[in-house]
């Protein structure tokens, strides 16, 4: 009984800390760019531009998205970065860094570097013919650097 109570308290404390942290992030008036790294939970469509079987560019994905079309997000609508972006006042969600629409002005809003199937180890995601997190940033950095004009 004591263990269950301790576990419940720990979960409650974690949720409370998350809400407090999220509330303080959302109240920052100067926060205007969002840069996202991760896997399918936060991928907004980078895998649409990669040779991989981990794709979300066909129905039923996107059925609850504002356009009612698949976007490459592994959800039926908005994903976590979309919701955080709305909360901090971004005019739009950061584009996938591999998107042809991604340019220097869009970089001011932020960029999504997430890719479904990516993992820390080189062997992670090999069944998706994806890439490791160790190789992903370099590939995406080259693409992002090419859109920045000084």
From TrEMBL:
GO terms for biological process: lipid catabolic process. Coiled coil: none annotated. InterPro entries: GDSL (IPR001087), GDSL_Est/Lipase (IPR051058), SGNH_hydro_sf (IPR036514). Residues 1-31 form the signal peptide. It holds the Pfam family Lipase_GDSL. Keywords: Hydrolase, Lipid degradation, Lipid metabolism, Signal. GO terms for molecular function: hydrolase activity, acting on ester bonds. Belongs to the 'GDSL' lipolytic enzyme family. This is GDSL esterase/lipase. It comes from Gossypium schwendimanii (Cotton).
């Amino acid at each position: 009984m004591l263990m269950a109570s301790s576990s419940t308290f720990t979960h409650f404390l974690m949720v409370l800390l998350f809400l407090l942290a999220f509330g303080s992030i959302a109240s920052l008036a100067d926060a205007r760019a969002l840069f996202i790294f991760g896997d399918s939970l936060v991928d907004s469509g980078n895998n649409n531009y990669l040779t991989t079987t981990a794709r979300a560019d066909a129905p039923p994905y996107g059925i609850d998205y504002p356009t009612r079309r698949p976007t490459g997000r592994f959800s039926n609508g908005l994903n976590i970065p979309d919701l955080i972006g709305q909360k901090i006042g971004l005019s739009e969600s950061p584009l996938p860094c591999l998107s042809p629409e991604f340019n220097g002005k869009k970089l001011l809003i932020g960029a999504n570097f997430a890719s479904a199937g990516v993992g820390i180890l080189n062997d992670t995601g090999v069944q998706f013919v994806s890439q490791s997190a160790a190789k992903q940033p370099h590939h995406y950095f080259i693409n992002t650097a090419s859109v920045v004009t000084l």
